[in-house]
Automatic annotation (TrEMBL):
Key words of the record: Calcium, Metal-binding, Repeat
Sequence intervals crossing the membrane: none
This protein's name: EF-hand domain-containing protein
Repeat found in the keyword field: yes
Length: 209
């Protein structure tokens, strides 16, 4: 149930208006800008991240960040830029990693949707240790029907890892899905579904909640 072209246009217009508001924070303006580019899922956010990360070290440092703000025509006091950067850099490492970037700029999700995402996560995390790994999937999901398992290229463990990594950002091949990563992934999915009722239905069917 993707948004129709009309709704898409309306969203872009709304975001354009938001961009022109002066009393919103640079972070909100950056988010508005990114949403106005039609950014939805992890893949497109990954594209934005890559463009801002000009030295390609998979981190956005302060100068790359301010450069991106200026390139989008967002000029504010340096203290405001600094506050905004610190707000995204939640673990205070001095740079923004991909997960922090997605968390700050992802499309918003309603409480109802977030609750469904957390229920799905809790169900998948069958051993209840707060992360999803192949250990949770063993005996619960069948990886043996995957074509690469059938032709002998992958073990069932590799099938599980490949699937788990689809919830992670690019270049994250940890085979482990954290709650935040799962939420970030579904924020992207959620943005293309207009009504809560369809999101609810999709989650219930996908995860048999
Ligand atoms: Ca960088
Ligand atoms: Ca950080
Ligand atoms: Ca687990």
């Amino acid at each position: 149930m993707a948004a129709t072209a009309r709704q898409e246009r309306e969203l872009v217009m709304k975001m354009e208006k938001l961009k022109q508001c002066v009393d919103i924070t640079p972070l909100e303006r950056l988010r508005a800008y990114i949403l106005s580019q039609g950014v939805r899922g992890l893949k497109t956010l990954a594209g934005c991240f890559k463009r801002i990360d000009t030295n390609n070290d998979r981190k956005i440092d302060y100068s790359e960040f301010t450069h991106a703000l200026h390139a989008e025509g967002i000029f504010v006091d340096p203290e405001v830029e600094r506050d905004c950067f610190n707000e995204i850099d939640t673990d205070l490492t001095g740079y923004i990693d991909f997960d922090e970037f997605v968390y700050a700029l992802r499309p918003p999700m309603s409480r109802l949707r977030k609750e469904l995402v957390h229920r799905a996560f809790n169900k998948l995390d069958s051993n209840g240790d707060g992360v999803i790994t192949s250990a949770d999937l063993k005996g619960v999901y069948n990886g043996r029907k995957h074509p690469k398992y059938l032709n002998g290229t992958w073990t069932e463990e590799q099938v599980f890892n490949e699937w788990l990594n689809s919830f992670n950002g690019p270049q994250n091949f940890s085979g482990v899905v954290m709650r935040l990563e799962f939420e970030n992934y579904y924020a992207g999915v959620s943005a293309s579904i207009d009504m809560d009722i369809y999101f609810d239905l999709m989650m219930r069917q996908a995860w048999r909640l």
